[in-house]
Structure formats: C-alpha cells, structure tokens
Amino acid sequence: MKIGIIGAGMIGTTLAQRLATAGHDVEIANSRGPETIDPAATSTGARAVEAEDVTADVDVVIVSVPISRVPDIASLVQAAPDSAVVIDTSNYYPLRDGRIPELEDGRVESLWVSAHYARPVVKAWNAITSQSFTAHASEPRDHNRIAIPVAGDDDAAKATAMSLVEATGFVAFDAGPLAESWRQQPGTPAYCTDRTAEELPDALAKADAARSPKRRDLAIAAVTERAEAEGSVSAEYLVRLNRAIY
Fold first, then answer.
1. What DSSP string runs through 13-65?
2. pLDDT at position 230, please?
3. Which of 47, 133, 137, 223 suits 235 as a labelling partner, its CA being 20 to 30 A distant?
4. Close Cβ partners of 158 (under 8 Å, ≥ 6 residues apart)
5. For the chain, what is the largest distance between any 2 Cα atoms, rounded to a whole number of angstroms?
C-alpha cells in the first residue's frame, strides 16, 4: 500500500521505519520541510516529502501530530483520495495543546478529529508510549506481545488499520466503534499501560469517562515533575505510573 504519514515525531518516525520495512510505499512529511526530518525516519526506505505532496494518491493517511494541530493540517487530509483510510494517533493534553472547549466538555477526541477532517477516521497507535512503540515490537508468536486498541466505524478501514498495526510488531485489538475510542484516551486503564491481548478487554471495560481527565492530568503532572528532577523519563516509569493511577 502507499502510505502518507503526516508528522515526523517519535511515533511518526517509528511508523515510517516499520511500515517501509514491511514492504509498504511510505512517504513522511512535517510542517518544516523534508530536509528537517530525522534521517532515522527514512532509514528503511521511506521518503521525506513536502507536506503538500504527502497525501497524493495514497491508500492510507496516518496523522501523528499534537491534536492542537489538527485544524492546521485538515486540508492535507482532505486532499487525499476519497478511498484513503485515515488513521488518527492523536491525544489531548491541555497542558500541551491548550484547552479545547469541545474536548473539555467531553467530546470524544477522534470524533472531534473526524469532524475537522470531514471524513471517517480510525484511531490507532495512540495508546502506547513512543518509547514502548520503539522498543517493544515483537513477533506474533510472543505470548506477551503488547496489544494496541483500534477503534473505527468502517469495518474495511478498521481491518486495514489493524493489518498495519500487526505489521509494526503489535497485536491489533478491535476496540469497537469510534464513539467508544474514549476508552483508549489518556487517563484510562488501556492508555500507555502495555497490556496484552488478554488484558486489554478488561482495561477497556474499566474506563471511566468522568475520572479519566483527572487521572490524565495527574499523570502528566507526575511526569513533568520527574523529568524536571531527573532530566528524562523511562518507558518503564511511564507504564508503572499509568498502571498505578488506575
């Protein structure tokens, strides 16, 4: 498949590496130009391109940018073919993104994203830390393989997204319709806790929409404090923290 990735941060970079390795035709872009993209993103065959070209003639668009940037890149997503599957990896963090009134009022994040793009989206790769995503891919025979929830309303689009999740080294778990994707948003038991496919259903079921924003903010405050004290935060700490606050 031809895949366009918008966003060249840690998740976007790893996606470009893994999906190109899996044999897909991958292009990646950011807002600052192809010359600014980390060479690691193109180390396995992906190509860095201009933002206005990244969604041309693609089968899949993967958007991996802070949710506050969604309105800015909506036109790029809308320029993709009508048949293209759009995958959203974003998460809402008010400390980083500023307060977005609709999300503060409880709108499901990816429903808000879908409205901005004016097309259906599938939510995937949002509920794993960039560190775990980089370090913990494994083969299908690994019984402790980390599961990644995938939510969406179109069965064919979701199946495409799930196949790509598997290609990046994780179990793809069908997490239901997009309206239920709040169960994999920050502050929930499924978010950045490295669950297996056996553990993930219970984690999704235990999500509490009323409490998750408070837990999200508690976690980010703890991460910020530790980063300021120690200079960095390990993947193991992030997983332990997210598990502990639930």
1. HHHHHHHHHTT-EEEEE-TT-GGGS-GGGGTTS-EE--GGGTTTT-SEEEE-S
2. 86
3. 47
4. 122, 150, 151, 152, 174
5. 48
**Residue 14 phi, psi (nearest 5):** -65, -40
Structural domains of the chain sorted by starting position, each given as residue range(s) with its CATH number in brackets: 2-176 (3.40.50.720)
Burial class (CB in 10 A: 0-12, 13-18, 19+), 143: exposed
Q: How far is CA 9 from CA 42, 129, 159, 229, in A?
A: 13, 12, 25, 24
Q: Tell me the C-alpha distance between 156 and 142, whole Å.
A: 27
Cα distance between residue 240 and residue 210, in whole Å? 22
pTM across the whole model: 0.95
Amino acid at 178: L
Q: Which helix (H) or strand (E) holds 5?
A: strand 2-6
Burial of 190 (0-12, 13-18, 19+ CB in 10 A): buried
Query: For residue 87, which amino acid is it?
Result: I
CA angle 11, 95, 225 (to 5 degrees): 85
